[in-house]
Specification:
By secondary structure, this protein is of the alpha+beta class. It is built from 11 helices and 15 strands. An 8-stranded mixed β-sheet has the order 5-4-3-6-2-1-7-10. The protein has a 5-stranded mixed β-sheet with strand order 11-12-15-13-14, sandwiched between helices. The protein starts with 19 loop residues before the first helix and ends in a 10-residue tail after the last helix.
Length: 426
């Protein structure tokens, strides 16, 4: 192959300053520039507010989709610090929104024991990928405001009034030159915020859609109408309320969910409920982030559940000595479970946080679930028997299906090996 002569020296090495890298490669930070990435912007800002709730300083978050697809997120947390940052020479609030990897969640005495936003890129990435961003902060007796355009400061933080309240309000308009669409899907956001409320007992999260839509009638456009949509979520029952919601139209085997909670280095919450259905539904969360690809916390849970039910079945004569152990899939048939762990320094696969990688979490979850679930089954023998009956039924059905497949394969193999009849001479 012929070489194409191009100069390649120091002058050809590009250095992207500030938030230019985010605008150049947005997918690295939010996954994509589709509607999924668009929603990710909202999640990043709301996650910051939820982190304030996890730290015990916030109990209300209001999300509004304003006309023109402007997003507004307001909380009653402590408010982003407004004093000057010693390293950057600008306010801490402006630092958080203009510099990657700047945040209050890397350790130290910030009040954040655990957090979903540990990369320090959430706020600054949203700012970089927005046409404009406006942040209003209430704390230290004042109201402060700053404004940005495509990540660059156009109005540094300034005090605009007095207030005895605390909190942060962020308004932004996603950049149409970056995203494929600016149309938020209300139902997608609503589902996410319902989950967040389930996972944080007592936290009130509301979402309201104030966008104006043009109603079509035939070929003629008639007067504009406002979408009347608002949802508010607050669940004192936490994960128990979550699984009950997921199973609201199903026949339950254990009417009250099995609830497991353990504090410690890795606080754990688990709720389990069995139904007569044949599918398993397991949802896993780390610091309120939905880890849709699972990870080490899910591995620990599955390992513990399989061991506990098999041990119980052996100890109580449900499984005889000659019987094989129940498989994990047999035990999880009809199970709805929500697993929520809080990890100080979670290791996720990428900024989009879909899989937990902390190896120590496997053992911590497995031990907690083993102890609590073993105790529950011993104390609730009727529920244990009902669940095990379903597990054994699933095991028999799986084994029967396996034998049927083997028989079919054997039959096909024998038919395929039949020698063709001898062709006579012409």
């Amino acid at each position: 192959m012929d070489k194409v002569e191009h100069e390649y020296g120091a002058n050809q090495i590009q250095v992207l300053e500030g938030l230019e890298a985010v605008r150049k490669r947005p997918g690295m930070y939010i996954g994509s520039v589709s509607v999924r990435g668009l929603h990710h912007l909202v999640y990043e800002i709301v996650d910051n507010s939820v982190d304030e709730a996890l730290a015990g300083f916030c109990n209300s978050i209001e999300v509004t989709i304003e006309p023109g697809n402007i997003i507004c997120v307001e909380d009653n947390g402590r408010g982003i610090p407004v004093d000057k940052h010693p390293k950057t020479g600008i306010s801490a609030a402006e630092t958080v929104y203009t510099i990657l990897h700047a945040g209050g969640k890397f350790g130290g005495d910030s009040g954040y024991k655990v957090s979903g936003g540990l990369h320090g890129v959430g706020s600054s990435v949203v700012n970089a990928l927005s046409e404009w961003t406006e942040v209003t902060i209430q704390r230290d007796g004042g109201i402060y405001q700053m404004k940005f355009e495509r990540g660059k400061t156009v109005q540094p933080l300034e005090r605009i009034g007095d207030s005895d309240k605390t909190g942060t309000k962020v308004r932004f308009l996603a950049d149409s030159t970056i995203f494929e669409t600016l149309e938020y899907e209300y139902e997608v956001l609503e589902k996410r915020f319902r989950e967040m409320a389930f996972l944080t007992k007592g936290l009130k999260i509301s979402i309201e859609d104030k966008r104006i839509v043009e109603k079509q009638e035939g070929e003629e456009a008639v007067e504009e109408e406002q979408k009347e949509r608002k949802s508010e979520f607050c669940f004192e029952g936490g994960l128990n309320s979550f699984v009950e919601y997921l199973n609201k139209n199903k026949e339950k085997i254990n009417e009250m969910p099995i609830y497991i909670e353990k504090d410690g280095e890795v606080p754990i919450e688990v709720a389990i409920q069995y139904t007569t259905s044949y599918s398993e539904n397991i949802y896993t969360f780390v610091n309120n982030i939905n880890t849709i690809e699972g990870g080490t916390h899910l591995e620990g849970f599955k390992r513990a559940v399989t061991k506990v039910f098999n041990d119980y079945a052996r100890n109580h004569g449900v499984l005889k000595e000659k019987d094989q152990n129940l498989q994990g899939e047999d035990i999880r048939e009809g199970m709805t479970a929500v697993i929520s762990v809080k990890v100080k320094e979670p290791q996720f696969e990428g900024q989009t946080k879909t899989k937990l990688g902390n190896s120590n979490v496997t053992g911590v979850v497995a031990n907690a679930v083993t102890d609590a679930l073993s105790t529950y089954l011993e104390e609730n023998p009727n529920v244990a028997k009902s669940i095990l009956d379903k597990c054994i039924s699933a095991s028999r059905a799986r084994e029967a299906a396996r034998k049927a497949r083997e028989l079919a394969r054997k039959k096909n193999s024998m038919e395929g090996s039949t020698l063709p009849r001898k062709i006579g001479r012409l």
